[in-house]
Amino acid sequence: MRKTIERPKEAITKVKTGKLDMKDVFIIFAAWGFGYLTKVFVAPIIEIGYVIACPISMYLLLSPSNVPAKKNIQVVIQLFLKDKTTYHSILPPKEQEHEI
Question: 20: which residues sit within 8 A by CB, 6+ positions away?
Answer without folding.
Answer: 28, 59, 62, 63
